Amino acid sequence: MHDFARLLKESWTLVEEDRERLSGHFYARLFLLDPGLRKLFPVEMTGQGNRILDAIVTATQVVGDPESFEEYLRSLGRDHRKYHVDAAHYETMGVALLDALRSIAGDGWNLEYDQAWRDAYAAITEKMLAGAAADENPPYWHAEVLTHERHGPDTAVLTVRALQHPLSWKAGQYVSVEVPRHLPRVWRTYSVANAPNDDNVLEFHVRTPAGAGWVSGALVRRTRPGDLIRVAAPMGSMTLDRDSTRDILCVAGGVGLAPVKALVEELTVGNRTRWVHVFYGARNCAELYGLAGLEELVAAHPWLSVTPACSDDPDFDGEQGDISDVVTRYGPWTAHDCYVSGSAPMVRATLRALAEDDVPPPHIRYDTFGNL
To answer: pTM score > 0.85 for this model?
Structure first.
C-alpha cells in the first residue's frame, strides 16, 4: 500500500501544475467517447464543470489511508447520484482520465504510474458504486424556500423545507445545492446551519462577493420564498464526537458560523457536562450577522460562552484582531475537542495556532470554504 500511494503521489507531481490543461483534455476526451454525457454537465463548464474530476483526484489522495478510504468514497458515490452517473459512465470517465494523465505528463509517465492509477480508479469506483447502490434515498430532494433574510449586500440566511422524502443529516455536515431555475446542473456545497429536526427544514448561510454569479449569487440575490431548489445527500465529518467528555472549542469566521451554530444547537439537547467556547470572527461588526442568535443561546445555556472579534473595525466594543490570534490569547486548548470553520486562510491560520498549542490532530475537525 505504501508503494502504491507513493506512485500515485509521485505521478501526480507531473500534472498538478497544469490542472487546466488536464481538465480540458479530460472533458474533451470524455465527450468524444460519449457525447450523451455532455447533458449531465452545466452549459458553462468553467470552474463548475470540474467538480467530478476534482472529486476523482481528491479520492486518489485518500486511497493510501485505509481509515478514511471506504466511508469517504461511499459517501462520494451517494453524492454523485445527483449527476445521474452509472457504472458505464464511470468506465468511460476512467478511460478519459488515463488518457488525459498520459497526455499531460508526457515523457515522465511510465507503466508503473499507469497501473497505479488504473488500480486506484478501479478501487475508487467500486466503493462509490457500492455507496450509491446501498442508498435508499432519492438522488436529491426538492426543497421549497420558506424564508430569505438579507444581511448587508452580500449575505443571506435562508430556510428551506425538503419535500416528499425525509432528509437525515448530522450537525456539522454539508449538502450540495442546485438552483435549477437560474443555474441548472450547477451544484455548490453549503453547511447546514441547524441541528436535525423532524420538520425537514434546513437553514443555510450564504455569502457572495459583489458581482459574483453562480449558485451563491443566485441564492443571495435572486431567490425568494416559494422558490424551489434541489438538495443532495449530506456529507462531511465535522460532527460531534459523542464518546468524548472533553470540553469544546468552536472557531467560526464569517458564514463559517453555519456548521458551528448547528453543533451548538445539537448540544442544547442533553449537554450538562461539557463547556462550549465559541469564537466568532468577521472583518467588522456588521458582518457578525449571527451574533444576536448566539447571545440568545448563551442566555439560555450556562455552559456556553461566545467571544466575538473583528479584524478591521476599531470601533467594535470587543476583541480586536484575526480570530486565530484571539483564540490563541484565550488558550491553552490542548484538552478540548476543536471545530474550525471559515475561509481557507482563516482555517489555515487557526489550524497553525492549534498545532502550536499542541492540540492533538485527532481532536481537531474543520470545514473550509475554499481550498486549503
So the answer is: no
For residue 1, pLDDT beyond 60: no
Positions of CATH 3.40.50.80 in the chain: 247-369
pLDDT tens digits, one per residue of 89-142? 889 999 999 999 999 999 999 999 999 899 888 888 898 899 889 988 888 999
φ/ψ of 239, rounded to 5, equals: -115, 165
The CATH architecture to which 2-134 belongs is Orthogonal Bundle (1.10)
On whether the CB atoms of residues 223 and 158 are closer than 8 A, the answer is yes
Q: Is the peptide bond before 332 cis (omega within 30 degrees of 0)?
A: yes
pLDDT one-digit tens code per residue, 326-351: 999 998 999 999 999 999 899 999 99
What is the mean pLDDT of the segment spanning 169-173? Answer: 95
SS3 296: helix
pLDDT in tens, 194-245: 999 999 999 999 998 755 558 899 999 999 999 999 999 898 889 999 889 9
8 vs 117: CA distance, rounded Å: 7
One of 3.50.50.60, 3.30.1330.10, 3.90.190.20, 3.40.50.80 is the CATH number of 247-369, namely 3.40.50.80
Angle, CA of 350, 353 and 358, to the nearest 5°: 125
Helices and strands (DSSP H and E) totals, the chain: 11, 12
CATH 1.10.490.10: which residues of the chain? 2-134
**H/E element, 79:** helix 66-79
CA angle 300, 291, 289 (to 5 degrees): 145
Second CATH level (architecture) for the domain 140-232: Beta Barrel (2.40)
Q: What crossing angle do the helices spanning 87-105 and 111-134 adopt, rounded to 10°?
A: 150
